[in-house]
Amino acid sequence: MNDEFFLPLFKRFGLYYAMIDSDLLLHFENDAMCEFLSVKPCLKQVHISDVFSEVIGLEDEIRTVVKGEKNEFSIRRINRSCSQEIFFNLYILNHSYKGYQAIVVVRDITNELLVYHSLQQSRNEIQLLQNELIEKNRDLDRINRDLEEKVELRTKQYHESSDLAKRLFIQTVNSLTYALELRDPYTTGHQQRVAILASAIAAHMGLDEDTVEGIRIAGLLHDIGKIYVPSEFLTKPGILPEEEYNVIKTHPLRGFEILKEIEFPWPVASFVLQHHEKINGSGYPYGLENNEIRLEAKILCVADVVEAMGTNRPYRISPGIKEALREIGRHRGIRYDPAVVDSCCDLFRNKNFSWD
Amino acid sequence: MPEEYKWKVVMLGDFAVGKTSLVRRFVYDEFSDSYLTTVGVKVTKKDIFIEQDNISLLLWDIAGSDRFSPVTPEYLRGASGAIVVADLTRGSSIDSIRTHLDLILSINPSAGIVVALNKLDLVKKSDERLAYMKSDEFRNGLSGSPLIHFTSAMSGENVEELFLSIAEKIRKASPDE
User: Fold this and answer.
1) What range does the domain containing A148 cover?
2) Which label site among A309, A320, B4, B61 has the fewest CB atoms less than 10 Å from its CB?
3) Residues A243, A21: Cα–Cα separation, whole Å
4) In sequence order, what DSSP letters do the residues of A97-135 get, joined into one string?
5) Which of these three, A83, A108, A133, is where a domain ends?
6) Same structural domain for residues A209 and A340?
7) Residues A203 and A280 grouped into a single domain
8) What does the pLDDT look like over B66-94, one tens digit per residue?
9) With 50 as the cut, is the pLDDT of residue B29 above it?
């Protein structure tokens, strides 16, 4: 190699060289490599590992190149922070020159690696953010699953307690009905049948499900006040003396008093209180008129009359359903609400309503 | 007689797990929390003494790998030991430990190996995953059941122990011993 000619070219293209002997001592022809590596001005002979600590442990491999058993040894992308950040590739090539069997070549790749470094930095940062996002999403998924499980558990608990409340409610209503029937076995089933008919009338009139249910519950309890009435008054056949009848007439008010403190979802106590009121004011206990009476009470009133006339009692023969319907028809718009009467009659005559 | 040794130790692990930070903490007792990716390889020398023996550790800080940029196997030639580093806060880097162990063992089966689970300062002591990684079950699931160190390059916790541990491991495996 002609140093005067090649050295500036080598420098321009970032190439630096030195010779290496079989003892792995470097022999420099100039200071270019030392200047690039920012190591002290090179001695004439120095062991390769003193300049390139990167080859420590790999000396045997380098010897195979110097001996010609292998053509090349290299370490790429070596990074050093000298006076400035540099990157280079180190090559040891089996190449005879000036009596040496091999040369060491350093190729400066700082510029291209700085560009690559910048790209790699951005790529890694993006990937770190993606990883973080994935981890955060996993955490969110975990939290969501925990929440869903909690909601599911609470919903189940709510349904269980709601079911229990409903069961308790129905059991309480049944117990109250049963308490009355114990005193007045002759009217056993009367309240259930009134409840069935009244709720059927209400549904047929197009009332919403919740209102229908309120009417059904009121039907089951409408005579609860009779618990205060002596049982012989209730079962006596024929027309009662006025004083006994007056006692019986107290049962809507007694029922109201029994039920008023219970927190039903509907004003059941008021329905019960008004279920003997007539729209012309001839009913009891207050003689209320049409608009003063709740629709639910009007429905109960009609269902009560039809059931009472339409079914047998141990102490009297039933006039029959037809007669019951004629009775409410006669008083349609007088005692009984016309729409309620129409709905009831239509149920029996055209919709095959029966208690069976 | 005191001996002198020069051992090449490679730092392996996914990118951004803290390999460079561990070397900087050990060699210069410095830490920077800004992330600067390593490109290629940077060799740093650190002299230590173990029972009067003078040991030069040549720490090869290699660019972190991922599925797009695998480790250059030529960097692993001639290594006496390897420290496989993972980030305790990044599950994927812990999953990669097995890949790094398999790679170093395939190129250099006699290399001494320890594992560093780094960024301990970012993990709650009560973390269930930390308890699992401290278990024998986790360690025995790794090739060669390597020693595991829980480190923090930020606080310096267990960093010196990590590097002394790899030196001890190489020294014990060294034919001169």
Assistant:
1) 115-183
2) B4
3) 140
4) ETTEEEEEEEEE-HHHHHHHHHHHHHHHHHHHHHHHHHH
5) A108
6) yes
7) yes
8) 766 677 788 998 899 999 999 999 888 99
9) yes
Domain identity same for A149 and A231: no
For residues B65 and A127, what is the distance between their CA atoms, to the nearest angstrom? 12
Tell me: do A14 and A51 sit in the same domain: yes
Into how many domains does chain A fold? Answer: 3
Please say if the pLDDT value at position B142 is more than 60.
yes
Chain B residue with CA closest to A114: the answer is B39
Can you say whether residue B88 is alpha, beta or left, with left for phi > 0 and alpha for psi between -120 and 50 degrees? alpha
* CA–CA dist B26, B28 (Å, integer): 6
**Is the complex ipTM higher than 0.95?**
no
Tokens of A239: 């027309």
Task: Please list the ranges in chain A whose pLDDT falls under 50.
Answer: none
Provide the CATH number for the domain around residue A27: 3.30.450.20
Does A322 share its domain with A220? Answer: yes
What is the least distance, in Å, from the CA of A96 to any CA of chain B?
Answer: 25
Rg of chain A, C-alpha, whole Å:
53
Residues A199 and A59 reside in one and the same domain: no
Same domain, A233 and A312: yes
Residue A354 structure tokens: 């029966």
pLDDT score recorded for residue B177: 47
- Judged by DSSP in three states, A237 sits in coil
Please check whether residues A8 and A37 belong to one and the same domain: yes
Residue type, A140: L
Residues of A in contact with B72 (CB under 8 A): 76-77
Q: Do B58 and A57 count as a contact with CB atoms less than 8 A apart?
A: yes
SS3 content of chain A, % helix, strand, coil (to 5): 60, 15, 25
Strands B81-87 and B112-118: parallel
Query: How close does chain A come to B148, measured CA to CA in Å?
Result: 24
Q: Is the peptide bond before A285 cis (omega within 30 degrees of 0)?
A: yes
For a pLDDT cut of 70, what percent of chain B falls above it? 96
